[in-house]
Amino acid sequence: MIVGRMFLTPEDGELARIEGRLARNPSLWTSRTSPVDVVRSYRRINGALVPVSLESTAQLRLLGRSTLLVIYRYSEIDDRAIHDE
Question: How many separate domains does the chain show?
């Protein structure tokens, strides 16, 4: 669960992004005093609203600040091929 904000597109109120902090510490490797910040972006592809990126930043014990960026690329959704948009 994320404690934060949800951003919607002004045209139709569709989910565009969620950003905030994880409600619970996900691992013993993350510092309890520094929360994990998360930004997850969404886009409509082939008619389905899907996540397209996830970025998280955390203070790791012994290692310092760390950022993870995940970019989602889909080859098909609902058994339909994805065409470059």
Answer: 1
